[in-house]
Amino acid sequence: MLPLGHFATGVLVAEALRRYVKRVPDPRTWWLAGGLCGLAPDIDCIGYLILALREGWRKAVLYDHHSWPTHAPIVWICVSLAVLLYLHQSYGTLLLAGSLTHFLCDTLTPSTGIMWLWPVSTTVIRPFSLLSPGFQWVIDYLHTPAFLVEIGLAALAAVFIYRALRSR
Ligand SMILES: [Zn+2]
After folding, report:
1. Any bridge partners for residue 125, and if so which?
2. How many structural domains is the chain composed of?
3. Three-state SS across 93-159?
4. Distance CA 20, CA 86 (A)
5. What range does the domain containing 78 cover?
6. What is the distance in A from the centroid of ligand 1 to the CA of 102?
7. Which end of the chain is less congested by CB atoms within 10 angstroms, N or C?
8. How far is the centre of ligand 1, averaged over its atoms, from the C-alpha of 71 (Å)?
9. pTM of the full predicted structure?
10. Distance 107 CA to ligand 1 centre (A)
11. What would the pLDDT profile of 80-134 be if each residue is shown by its tens digit?
12. 18 Cα–ligand 1 center, Å
């Protein structure tokens, strides 16, 4: 999934959690935080900048960040629990839900898949595989039905936020 869909999914997750989480801040801040939590696991894309500096962009984009430990659910479960226990219960809960939803979306959309059981197993789960190398993956992904679903999620999140803000 592309960043647009991850952000939109995070916003929708934040709204779904809003009623159940204590000490929720103002809705706009909560939705923004939800979008960022939905995007959070892709922060490892910063690694591409480091690789590009060392090896050039052509080689850097051939790496698959889904195969890095930073894209393993257990890492984000641990980070979320640390935030939940030591920093802020509501944002920790949001990060847990947002990051796990991120991995669910990465699994259910055509990609190289996710290692759900890392470090116990490096088996990749990918019901809909799309193994194009580098930037070609983006081009190919734009032609899949999953991209239309992503656009739909983004539209749903935008309409929802617009309505919620108008009714205030
Ligand atoms: Zn991802």
Report:
1. 114
2. 1
3. HHHHHHHHHHHHHHHHCCECCECCCCCCCCCCECCCECCCCCCHHHHHHCCCHHHHHHHHHHHHHHH
4. 20
5. 3-166
6. 6
7. C
8. 7
9. 0.90
10. 9
11. 999 999 999 999 999 999 999 999 999 999 888 899 999 999 998 988 887 788 8
12. 24
